[in-house]
Amino acid sequence: MENLQGNWALITGASSGFGEEFARQYAAQGRPLVLVARRIEKLETLATELRETYRVDVIVEQVDLSNLAAVIQLHQRLRERGIAIDILINNAGHGLQGTFVDGTLDAALAMLQLDVVSLTAVTHVFAQDMRTRRRGKILLVASMLAYLGVEKFAAYAAAKAYVLRLGEALHRELKRDGITVTVLCPGMSDTGFATAAQQKITPALKLLMMQPAPVVRAGIRALQARRISVVPGWANKATVMFTRATPRWLHQAVFSRVMGAANDRGDAYTASIKVRR
After folding, report:
1. Average pLDDT of 70-95?
2. Catalytic residue among 26, 54, 147, 156
3. What are the structural domains, with CATH classification, of the chain?
4. Which residue in 178, 238, 262, 276 has a CA-CA distance of 20 to 30 Å to 194?
């Protein structure tokens, strides 16, 4: 078996949802972990559980990743401790739902800061180290909405489209340096996001709902297999195929119904949940 001692995995947004599940699955492999999020209490509780259950080293870092200076400081602290990140799970994110104009500009910009700017910064600083060592793996967590422009999710879908396109380009760009970049595009998942964001769960969405564990397993397997991207779940895969085979006006109209947006009479609300991933 591969000796994982010293092959650290860094997981952002590790206090809940997909991030917590990534931590559990990598700990079960025996891999030492750096867990990053803003909620220190949840991180500490998870770290204690993983240490006791799997006998792995776990470092906890309370970081507000929307602060670019904090990203640089995190990178410097780990380098000073001699911790080389072998796997980066760039998972922290901020969901946003609601009509674009009726929402606040501050809310939209805060989401873009975390989902786009900070994700780019985290990827950049740790990819530089990986290039020096000529090895490493990076998983960027996007969304199935990266393939769609859906009303009430305009800025969020656009942000995830950026993540997908960034990862696709970096997959080829960094491959020559021994670095694998894979994009995970989950669909509707039972991570608590929908409830916190007051999202209407339509019957169609219930059929598409996945648990975090198989989504994370799909991401880890795709990263290990050096795939460019992965959409977990057969129903989600079929959905993406449908978007590729139909005109934009058609699949956008269909998924407005699926997401429940068209059933909403345009009432102004914007709901968000931070560090959902």
Report:
1. 95
2. 156
3. 8-273 (3.40.50.720)
4. 238
